[in-house]
Design goal:
This protein is mostly helical. The chain contains 24 helices and 5 strands. The protein has a 3-stranded mixed sheet, with no helix packed on it. The longest helix is centred in the first third of the chain and has 35 residues.
Length: 543
């Protein structure tokens, strides 16, 4: 039995924090400065982390090895599986010629790139996030924007930026449900506070996206659409999360926003159409399609929604789970002891791997793609060819995802991530702001708001209680501000690059571009958290 030590360097938290941060510094430098591909950065940081975990933190080699194996396995399934299935679905629409009809149907609403970005990247992406999560919205929405004529880089960037507000309630509210489970706090209280944060984010993000695309002055040209989308999404999200809980909040909010946007674009258009640099001028003539043709073209995505929601139906899920394989990872499960203050008392660190091959969101997405191929007349042989080409296309992105998840799991089980968390917790009265940064760090490391909540949720509560702060505030901050780290996690960047067909050399550029926006939004949320902690504490629910 190996016991974690969070201050292995001269029993100093500050010195240990410097050591624990080295793998993250390597990631930032290799991507943002040296401009290496993300898979090279991921493997390099992983190699250094192994040396530090074993040599400095004293982690036994078998546990270090198995933590990396578990992380890589989790990266490939379920995360990698979702990316594969999402791109197969997209390719089915392209190879059957239906995507041209989808483009025309969206273009009939508006040729304006600003409105297309809000509609697809924010509203439609939020719907996919609410139903499936785990990288699916970025893959689907970025591929759709690329097909509409956005440059691959810009499509990836916009979708990463848009995939923020809905993430805390993605995949039917799993991040908040997980947060309630690990902290013991009331689920509705956490849902309410996280919903208040995310409603504020939802009001900001559509306008933020358009300002980034076109500048402040040209943003005013589409202000009616921005206001309708933002307020509709935020209002429904706030109402549902504060009254009913996390499960359907984003799905209902995104449906409302989609309907509102479509209605606005049917009756109103900006006086000047905005195009991106490099766009080809749009012809005034556009091919019209019958309602049946449009319905057929959108049927793959309708099937995706139907399959994903059906897979969440408890009776069906129970049947599918009968073939789920869940097991403790050999040599790692309960072979490590976590100690205070990370946990209230010494406890065994579980390491369970869940191979839910039928109930996984990726499986429902894959089956919807296969069903769509049959519905649209694609032969089984052609479908197999599509699958093969997607697997070849994703070889490097899957290596990135596997290496970064291996790094995240190694740092978690070695105690290195906990060292970083304790450094944030040591900031005293400033902790509400640093709790936001802690959530951001967790999602940057793991690529998952759910994983970040599982990792740092208890630490947020323990520290809040020690500082006489409301633990619902800091725990909710972990979930709501963590979403800002999603756009710079290497998994998300790898997914976006793969979905849009960009060269691997563009990953560093995409990372650098999104990083500044991620930090700006994270700092904004840190300030908001401080306001709730010390100015408006009466608006924070109690557990």
């Amino acid at each position: 039995m190996w016991e974690q030590n969070y201050t292995p360097v001269a029993e100093s938290l500050s010195a240990s924090t410097v050591v624990a941060a080295i793998p993250l510094v390597i990631l930032f430098v290799m991507l943002g400065v040296i401009r290496k591909p993300s898979w090279v950065a991921g493997l390099s940081a992983l190699g250094v982390a192994v040396v530090l975990a074993v040599g400095i933190y004293g982690m036994p080699v078998p546990q270090a090895g198995m933590s990396m194996v578990m992380g890589a396995a989790f990266g490939l399934f379920p995360i990698g599986w979702i990316v594969i299935a999402s791109l197969i679905l997209y390719r089915v629409t392209v190879d059957t010629g239906k995507f041209e009809i989808i483009k025309d149907s969206i273009g009939s609403l508006s040729d304006d790139r600003r409105l297309q970005a809000i509609l697809i990247a924010f509203a439609f992406g939020a719907f996919i996030e609410g139903a499936a999560g785990f990288g699916t919205p970025v893959a689907v929405a970025a591929a759709m924007l690329t097909g509409l004529g956005f440059s691959p880089f810009y499509a990836a960037f916009i979708c990463l930026l848009a995939n923020t507000a809905p993430v805390a309630f993605g995949s039917l509210g799993i991040p908040v449900v997980t947060l309630a489970g690990v902290t013991g706090l009331d689920e509705l209280a956490l849902s309410s506070m996280t919903g208040r944060f995310c409603a504020l984010i939802a009001i900001i993000i559509p306008a933020y996206i358009v300002v980034v695309m076109s500048g402040f002055k040209r943003t005013l040209e589409v202000l009616p659409a921005i206001v309708v989308c933002s307020l509709t999404f935020a209002g429904v999200l706030f109402f549902v999360t504060n009254n009913y809980g996390p499960d359907l909040a984003v799905i209902l909010a995104s449906i409302a926003a989609l309907i509102a946007l479509v209605l606005v674009m049917k009756f109103w258009q900006p006086s000047q159409v905005f195009r991106l640099e490099g766009d080809v001028e749009v012809s005034v003539e556009r091919k019209t399609h019958t309602t049946g043709e449009i319905f057929s073209a959108w049927s793959p995505y309708m099937l995706l929604v139907a399959f994903v929601l059906a897979w969440r139906f408890p009776p069906l899920q129970a049947v599918l789970n009968t073939v789920t394989y869940q097991f403790g990872v050999p040599g790692l499960h309960e072979a490590i002891m976590r100690v205070p203050p990370i946990t209230p008392e010494p406890s065994m660190y579980a390491a369970m791997y869940n191979f839910n091959w039928l109930t996984a969101a990726g499986t429902s997405c894959f089956l919807s793609a296969f069903a769509a191929s049959l519905l649209l007349g694609m032969s089984p042989g052609k479908f197999v060819g599509v699958v093969g080409s997607i697997l070849h296309q994703l070889s490097k992105p899957l290596l990135t995802i596997a290496s970064v998840l291996a790094l995240a799991f190694l740092m978690n089980y070695a105690g290195m991530t906990s060292t970083l968390g304790l450094a944030f917790a040591a900031t005293g009265p400033l902790f509400p702001a640093f709790s936001a940064m802690l959530g951001w760090t967790g999602v940057f490391l793991t690529g998952s708001d759910t994983a970040s909540n599982a990792l740092f949720g208890t630490l947020q509560v323990v520290t809040a209680n020690a500082l006489d702060l409301n633990p619902v505030l800091t725990a909710s901050t972990n979930a709501a501000t963590g979403v800002m780290g999603k756009m710079v996690s290497l998994q998300s960047i790898a997914v976006a690059v793969a979905a849009t067909g960009m060269a691997a050399s563009e990953e560093g550029r995409l990372f650098r571009t999104t990083l500044k926006h991620s930090i700006i939004l994270m700092l904004f949320m840190a300030i908001v958290t401080m306001v709730f902690a010390y100015v408006l504490p009466q608006f924070v629910p109690t557990a």
